[in-house]
Amino acid sequence: MIAQIFQDAFSPQWIKTHLTNPTHDLILLRHIIPWHLIIDRLVPFYNPQKGRTGHSLRILVATSLLSRLRQLSDRKVIENIQENRYMQYFCNVPDQSLMTFLNPSTLCRFRKRIGKEGTLIIEDQVFQHLKRASVIDADMMLMDATVLESPIMYPTDVRLLSKAFGKMAAVAREGQIEPWWDQPHVKQRWRAYNLNQKDRLAYLREFYTLFVPALASFNEHLEHLPTSPLRQRWSHLLEVLSLLHEHTQQQWAGESHMDHRLVSRDDLEARPIKKGKRHPSTAFGTTLQMTFNRQGFMITTENFMGQPNEKTLYGPSLERFRERMQAYPGTAVTDLGFRSANNLKRKSQLTFRTPRMTIHAFSQGIFRTHRKPQQCYVVVA
């Protein structure tokens, strides 16, 4: 159960006494954010008839927003609310319950309950009302791409094959089937490889020789399984291991570059991505494309497998920015990776600013450029 309404916890006298700065950002945001609309859309995530009445949605939503706004952990944001009157006012926490109003674990359960759908509701409502209040404007777009790294160990071909046996052993135990390969021998060879990793190709050949018949037997066992969730998990693992088999074959054939090369069986979308830094030069994960406005609000974000060309990302990202803000930006700030002749022609009177080159696109299609290291400026007609 959850309460669908709330009341302001502070009297005008309390506000006059404790809040001396009427233009404080938290005071302004408290009056802009549509609390009632957000709560009405979050109520369906709770059962109206079962369980005791939960914590105030008004407090939970505000505390979650504040933790992101101030970049605080669950525990720290509660501690700061207990010490800061402006935060108390923003979160609508009355004095009488200030020391016990929320436990950090409650915020974790709240996020788990509303999930992605509920989080999008909060984000959309806050974003739209801030935009209507002219807090968020579209005069400038800052665009960049980075690597969203996956929490995986540095992948090697031998490690991938060795851990493939571990994955098959896990599903075999779940299906109450004895391993169909020599498990002690695989563990022994893995220990030997860790003691002598210089001869990598020899161990890769040895593990691949053991992996091929084990994969074939895995496919045979799958055919005899009845339709069930276990069979679905086996089928999914078989697809992953088949992809690993294919990539290992390509490597033995001498191919140095493989599209969508598998680097993890747990994160199937992770790929090796070259970074613009000396060390480490390669990261493993996905490409994260983001756009911001001048005030630092994230307007759009998109995740890509592999490392798409930044020149091809500019056009779709510009359109997504326009759809979100209902207007094209007056200025686009990027790095040189996004610059191309096609991108410069996408919109007349759009200024492209980069750390080393600034270009103003005139309606006649004429471009003037000036290079100057360590400076960024706009050329005006």
What can you tell me about this protein's structure?
There is one protein chain. This protein is an alpha+beta fold and 381 residues long. It is built from 13 helices and eight strands. Strands 1, 2, 3, 4, 5, 6, 7 and 8 form an eight-stranded mixed β-sheet that branches. Helix 13 links the parallel strand 5 and strand 6. The longest helix is centred in the first third of the chain and has 29 residues. The chain is globular. The C terminus is likely disordered.
Helix content: 40-55%
Strand-residue proportion: 5-15%
Inertia-based shape: globular
Q: What's the β-strand tally? A: 8
Number of helices: 13
Q: Rg from C-alpha positions?
A: 28 Å
What layout of secondary structure does this protein have?
Layout: H1 12-18, H2 25-32, H3 35-42, H4 57-69, H5 74-83, H6 85-91, H7 104-132, E1 140-149, H8 157-174, H9 183-195, H10 200-223, H11 229-252, E2 271-274, E3 282-292, E4 298-304, H12 310-325, E5 331-333, H13 341-344, E6 351-353, E7 357-361, E8 367-371
Parallel strand pairs: 1-5, 5-6
Antiparallel strand pairs: 1-3, 2-3, 3-4, 6-7, 7-8
Offer a few descriptive terms.
disordered C terminus, alpha+beta, 381 residues, globular
Brief synopsis:
Helices cover 48% and strands 13% of the residues.
